[in-house]
Amino acid sequence: MHLLGASLLLLEYLAFSDAEDWKFEHPGTLYAWEGACIWIPCQYKLPGKRVSLDNLTVYHKYKYDDNAKAFSGNILLQMAKMNKLSQGRIQFLGDSKSNCTLRIHPAKTEDNGILGLRTTSGSEKWMEKIVLNVSKTAPAPRIQLPLEIREFQEVTLTCLLNFSCYGYQTKLQWFLESSQLPSNTSASLTTKTVSTQSKLTMHPNWTHHGRNLTCQLWNDNAEGPLSYETVQLDVKHAPKEVTTVLQSPTPIREGDNVTLTCNYTSSNPRVTRYEWSPQGLWNELIPGVLMIQKVSWNAGPFTCAACNSWCSWASPVNLHIKYAPKGVKVLPIIPHSEIHSGDRILLQCNFSSSHPTDVRFFWKKNGILLKEGRELSFDSISPEDAGSYNCLVNNSVGQSTSETQMLQVLYAPRRLRVSMSPKDSVTEGKDAVLTCESDANPPISQYAWFDWNNQNLHHYDRMLRLDPVKVEHSGAYWCQGTNRLGVGQSPPSTLTVYYSSETISRRTALGVGLCLAILLLAIWGVKLHQSWKRIQSQQGLQENSSGQSFFVRNKKIRRAPLSEGPHSMGCYNPVMEDSISYAVLHFPVDENDTPRIGDAGTSEVPRLSLNRDNSVTYSVVHKRQVGDYENVTPDVPEDEEIHYSELVHFGAGERPLDHEGVEYVTLKH
């Protein structure tokens, strides 16, 4: 067994002696198809110092015969001494120095297999193997793509066919779907490669993604492509035609729920996430679907982005939210910093935005609807126009109200009046408070009080306190108020002060005492009168005497001082102090008739006849005492009383029959 192995090694050594010195360069495998040609570029280097090739034999499907110690097979070409360059379909296009190029035309499928080039140069021999791949039809070209094709980046694609042969023209053409693309075809026939290729330079866009790119092999004599290869372009690109779609029904009102979706038409690689703008407290129900709860009036516009390795943003979508007017406010157009009564004032209602824009304006004063219109004007403003004003703006969605605009009107004091507490009538000894009430802006800074005589009381507070109140405080009072704009005056208000129960009791007792005194005087007068009548009746009357007159002067009488006795209460009675008393006495004819005394001026006493000839006249003149009250002793001595009497008898004769009468008259001074 060992001997057999050694023998084989020896034979191989003998067959391939100096093999390391032979060097061949040619393509490892050559491709062709039925009817085409095969071009075999070949270079060699002789071993050692050999300068030329002696013999060349081309075997097809050769093998080594161990017995004959030689190669055998189908000989396609044999050259001895290099004097025969061609034989049949195969041509030797080389030389005896270094070129061993061969051409086979036409190629047949039987050529498929291994060719062997047996070369000899002197004692040096060599067998070179060449592989032929001959198919029935032309093989498909191969499209070589870059590792990644990105949108808008220039790329070069190669269509390669491992075939080329002089004398057999081929070309490669590019087609994108059914559209032919411009390209150039080039051939390479070297000992390293035999090929035909076409390069396509393009700037792909996202629309090329997924489309078919075809490279076709053409021959001038063929009616159609001999072969082709199609690839589907894989163009990396960001999401395309991203749109934000409003799913909620329109129109949308403030406070509604809104649903948005993010759509796109193409993405490579696929979309992995979505982004939304503006960012907020939104709820993404599922990737690409956004729920906005209770949308605000100024929400949006909204946009979304679909993202893979890149993000693509959609165009913003406006929600066109309908809402009530916003930013409603009152713009006061005031000529001065202060508003005085009588000024011209203009209030204007303004708002910042409204959707829809068709609006109406209203005004409220102190919460009560006043009028409609954008402007509220006062040609001559009055204090009654002061208050809180609000402007209302409404549209078909709702109504908005402005903040309150306070309108303050400055004016001089007016409508002053005096109020009395507890009321306008009060009992002496109590407290009485008079308050000066007014209407003024700015408030009254100074007050003044006056009584019923327009006398300034020199009291400058708002309230006038009478503590305690007296009867002499009764009367009318009025006040005056002043601010920096003017002066106002109230009408008089009357304060009535009543006597207290103590005073009334005291004065009642005084009145009762006075009445008792009068009664006593009356009784004394009656008694005095009766006494006088007795005196008159005792005196003898002379019938035919002439009239006599006489005066009686009473003696001065000093009254005891009242201080020495108990004080009495009474009222001043001037009648008791100054009086003139006058009396006339009439005597009847019949002495038996009983005389009657009647009061002067009464209807019960018959009036006397003017023809009466008998009469007695009696007069008393009193001078009044100097003093205010009966219980006060005068400083001067009392005067005397003067009594005057006249008795007249008119002639002689019988007296006419008549009743005796007395007339008494008191004349008050």
From TrEMBL:
Keyword annotations of the record: Disulfide bond, Membrane, Signal
PANTHER family cross-referenced by the UniProt entry: B-CELL RECEPTOR CD22
Protein name: CD22 molecule
Subcellular location as annotated: Membrane
Entry GO terms, CC: early endosome; external side of plasma membrane; extracellular exosome; recycling endosome
Record domain Ig-like: where: 141-232, 239-309, 325-408, 413-496
Molecular function per GO: CD4 receptor binding; protein phosphatase binding; sialic acid binding
InterPro entries: CD80_C2-set, Ig-like_dom, Ig-like_dom_sf, Ig-like_fold, Ig_sub, Ig_sub2
UniProt keyword Disulfide bond, yes or no: yes
Main location: membrane
GO BP: any one term: B cell activation
Keyword Signal: yes
Membrane topology category: Single-pass membrane protein
Signal peptide start-end: 1-19
